[in-house]
């Protein structure tokens, strides 16, 4: 897989300048690259984006960096120098989108904030991502995924009902949720610009994004202020995995048909008791429901996953077996839909990534190319800017690497 210069995606021709680091901003920009945007990533000389060094790595490039920086070109520029700032400002003048995720105020001190960029590019869509947003008493706090999970309610929601300790999602869920909100906001702003309403500054706090995400269905008592509080705020709170003879799975008996189908599949009687036949009755008669559910879990423990799959599919029950990432790549559905792409990367060797999840049938999206080595495209991009005759001078001064 190589950099695709003949983009077919819906954002073909769009120029994105990615000043962000770690996960939230880079992942958002990678998704834009999948959709056809031409993304130039700016990294500091020497160490580059810290994500290059986090987690599983081969030859100095991590899986984390590879996944979040696919399809980009990378230049290595010292943003603390006047000349480095001038180079990046020149790039920003030609960009449709500029994306950064420094703490509030940092990018302005570097001379690359929204006002500075707008002065040379009035129609720019400029996206600023930070932990807690640009105002408020927490604006200057350092923010990492886990701290945002704590603040926004993820950890509390993951706790066992009845007062269990807060539990963190063991992945950077807050970062990725925020990246998805950022992508949607950027494309919405681009639509507004195409409609004649000009460019604009987008400011997104990770905390805002994650609270919005959580409250869609996991803060019922906080949304309905006149609720009696008798039910958990999250209607998913009571779902627990089933233990089979050879693994784990989950059944989600939300509808009456799902509940009846689960009981039938597991040879559990009593599901047609009028006191629990409907979702409304099950909600009122927990003392009748709980022994039935206990029996379902007990019966499941006598089945293999394969046996359970046959039974659940026969009853058309909403279910899934618990898969690890390693198991997912060999799953027959994932194989059938070509969920993953394998390729050779010049730094890490063999690699595998999931394809872009949305299938654009008119303007196909694709993984746009390899994640770049640090500074791999510095000379190329600066030559395009008309600075080709100054490369040696800039490198000798430490402005570029």
Automatic annotation (TrEMBL):
InterPro entries: CoA-transferase_III_domain, CoA-Trfase_fam_III, CoA-Trfase_III_dom3_sf, CoA-Trfase_III_dom_1_sf
Keywords per UniProt: Transferase
Pfam families: CoA_transf_3
Key word Transferase present: yes
A molecular function GO annotation: CoA-transferase activity
Name the record gives this protein: Unannotated protein
Organism of origin: freshwater metagenome
């Amino acid at each position: 897989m190589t950099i695709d210069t003949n983009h077919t995606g819906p954002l073909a021709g769009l120029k994105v300048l990615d000043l962000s680091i770690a996960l939230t901003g880079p992942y958002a920009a990678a998704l834009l690259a999948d959709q056809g945007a031409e993304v130039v990533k700016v990294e500091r000389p020497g160490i580059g984006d810290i994500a290059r060094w986090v987690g599983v790595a081969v030859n100095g490039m991590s899986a984390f960096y590879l996944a979040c920086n696919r399809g980009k070109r990378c230049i290595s520029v010292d943003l603390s120098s006047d000349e480095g700032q001038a180079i990046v400002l020149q790039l920003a003048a030609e960009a449709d989108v500029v994306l950064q995720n420094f703490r509030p105020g940092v990018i302005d001190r570097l001379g690359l904030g929204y006002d500075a960029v707008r002065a040379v590019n009035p129609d720019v869509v400029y996206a600023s991502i930070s932990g807690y947003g640009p105002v408020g008493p927490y604006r200057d706090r350092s923010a990492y995924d886990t701290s945002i999970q704590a603040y926004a309610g993820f950890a509390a929601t993951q706790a066992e009902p009845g007062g269990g300790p807060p539990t963190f999602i063991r992945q950077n869920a807050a970062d990725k949720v925020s990246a998805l909100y950022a992508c949607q906001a950027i494309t919405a702003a681009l639509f507004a610009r195409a409609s004649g309403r000009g460019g604009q500054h987008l400011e997104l706090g990770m905390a805002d994004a994650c609270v919005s995400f959580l409250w869609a269905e996991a803060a019922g008592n906080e949304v309905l202020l006149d609720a009696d509080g008798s039910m958990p705020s999250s209607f998913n709170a009571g779902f627990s995995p089933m233990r089979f003879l050879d693994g784990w799975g989950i059944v989600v008996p939300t509808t009456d048909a799902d509940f009846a189908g689960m009981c039938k599949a597991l040879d559990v009687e009593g599901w047609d008791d009028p006191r629990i036949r409907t979702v409304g009755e099950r909600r009122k008669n927990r003392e009748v429901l709980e022994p039935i559910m206990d029996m379902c879990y007990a019966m499941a423990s006598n089945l293999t996953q394969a046996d359970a799959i046959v039974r659940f599919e026969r009853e058309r029950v909403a279910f899934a077996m618990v898969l690890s990432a390693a198991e997912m790549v060999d799953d027959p559905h994932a194989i059938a839909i070509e969920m993953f792409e394998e390729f050779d990367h010049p730094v890490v060797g063999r690699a595998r990534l999931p394809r872009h999840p949305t299938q654009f049938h008119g303007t196909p999206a694709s993984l746009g190319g390899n994640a770049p080595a640090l500074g791999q495209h510095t000379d190329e991009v600066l030559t395009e800017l008309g600075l080709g005759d100054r490369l040696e001078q800039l490198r000798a001064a430490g402005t570029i690497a």
